[in-house]
Amino acid sequence: MKSMYLVSRIKSLNFSKKTRGIDMSKNSDINKIEIIEFNPIKCSREEWQQYHYYRRIRHEEISPDDPLTPDEIVEKGLQMQMNHPEMVPYMYTIKDTSINKRIGTVAFMVIRETSPSYEGNKHLIQYDIILLPEYRRNRIGTRALKMIYDFAVKNEKSIVITGSEESDGKAFLKAIGAQIVLSGVENRLDFADIDWNMIEEWENEGPNRSPETKLEFFYSIPEELIEPYSKIYTETLNQQPLGDLDVKDIIYTPESLREMEKRRKELGRTHLTYITTEPNGEISGLTEMLFMPERENMIVQLLTGVKQEHRGRGLGKWLKATMMLRIKEEFPSVRIVTTDNATTNTPMLSINDRLGFKVHKEGITGQMKTEELGKYLEGK
Predict the structure, then answer these.
(1) 341 — pLDDT class (breaks 50, 70, 90)
(2) What angle do the packed helices 140-154 and 370-377 form, to 10 degrees?
(3) What separation in angstroms does the CA of 295 have from each of 63, 123, 292?
(4) Distance (Å, rounded) from C-alpha 82 to C-alpha 62?
(5) Residue range 7-183+365-377, CATH number
(6) Distance between terminal CA atoms of the chain?
C-alpha cells in the first residue's frame, strides 16, 4: 500500500504511524513539557537511552507479540535516514523535563528538491505525533501541530498528511477535521495456515499458461536489468489505488534502487526478488520480500506488480507461489509473512485471501490543507 506518502520510504524511516490523542500525567507539570530537536547523528548516549526506554513502552503497547528490534539496528537505521538522498526528515523529542523523561515523538518529512519525485510531491509534508498513554489529551499534541503548521507555511507545503492504526489516533484525525482519504490493512500469513499443495499448483500453472515467459531470481538487481527494472517498479507501484490521497507518481531510478540496496545491506537485511520476462526481454511482473535477521520469525512481503497488459495470465500467483516456496526452503525460521495493502487493491487482496492472509491491523490515512489546519489551530 503506497499510503501516507512513499510507502517504502516511510517504512524505512521507522516512524510509527500512530498519531495519538493526549492525556497528561497527573504527576507532571504541563509547563515542564518541551519539544527538543532529536538528531540521531549527534545525540548523546543519555538521549539514546531515553529513546530506547520510550520505544520499549510503545512496543509493549502496540506490538507486544512481535520481536523488538535491537537498539544498535534502530540507531544505525535512524542515523542513515538523516542523510537520505530523497527525503528530508525532522525529528524531535517530547520531553517531561520535571523527571528528565522522553514521553513522545514529533517527526515529519518532506521530499528533497533533488528527488526525481519532487515536482509532483513538493507540496506535501507527512508527520507523526506520538505520546505515551499517561500524557495524552492535554494539549501537548496541539503544540506539536502548531510547530508542524508553522514549518508547512514557511516552506510552502499546502497539504499535511498523517495516519493511524489505533482507535484514539483515528478519533484524533476526526477531531482535527482531517479528510480520511485512504484505508489500508496490515495482513499477516501464518505458515501453519498455508495450503502448500495450492502453492505448488500455482507454481506449475504459471509456466503452463505462459510457456515462453521466464522466471528469474536475484538478491541484487543485475546491472543489465536495472534500467528496465526501475521502470516497471515505478509503473506497478504507481498503479496501486490511492483513493483521494494527494500524492503524485513516485519515481524510482537505477540510482535510487542502488541506494536502497546499499542501505539494506548495511543493516544486514536480505532482499529477494523474482521477475517474469517475456520472449522480447520485457519485464512483465515482479515480487519482492525482505528478511530482517532481528525478526527471524517474520518476513515482509513488499511490492508485487504485473504490468497492465500482462494481467490475466496468473503471473502474480506464479511469482508469489515461487517466492513462498523459496522462503520455506531458505529461511526455515520464518513463520509469519506480513504485508500492507490498500483495502481498494482488489486484485492483490484476492490473491492474499487465497493464500490465507488475515487482517492484523487496520489503518487510515488523513490529509488536510495547511490552511484548514491553521483554522483548526486558531484559538487553541
Answers:
(1) confident
(2) 140
(3) 13, 36, 5
(4) 25
(5) 3.40.630.30
(6) 34
Q: What are phi and psi of 63, to 5 degrees?
A: -145, 55
Cα 92 to Cα 219: distance, rounded to the nearest angstrom: 35
Question: 3-state DSSP call for residue 70?
Answer: coil
Round to whole Å and give the CA distance between 176 and 171. 9
Query: For the chain, percent helix, then strand, then coil, each to nearest 5?
Result: 40, 25, 30
Length of the chain, in residues: 380
Buried b (16+ CB within 10 A) or exposed e, 184-197: bbbbbbebeebeee
Please, which residues have CB within 8 angstroms of residue 104's CB and are 6 or more apart in sequence?
20, 54, 93, 94, 129, 130, 131, 132, 135, 140, 144
Secondary-structure class of domain 187-363 per CATH: alpha beta
Nearest to 335 by CA among 362, 295, 303: 295
Q: Tell whether the model's pLDDT for residue 22 goes beyond 80.
A: no
Q: What is the pTM of this model?
A: 0.89
Q: According to CATH, where is 3.40.630.30 located in the chain?
A: 7-183+365-377, 187-363
Residues 349-372: pLDDT tens digits? Answer: 889 999 999 999 999 999 999 999
Contact present, 132 and 23 (Cβ < 8 Å): no
Contact 357, 187 (CB under 8 A): yes
Residue type, 212: E
Distance CA 362, CA 340 (A): 10
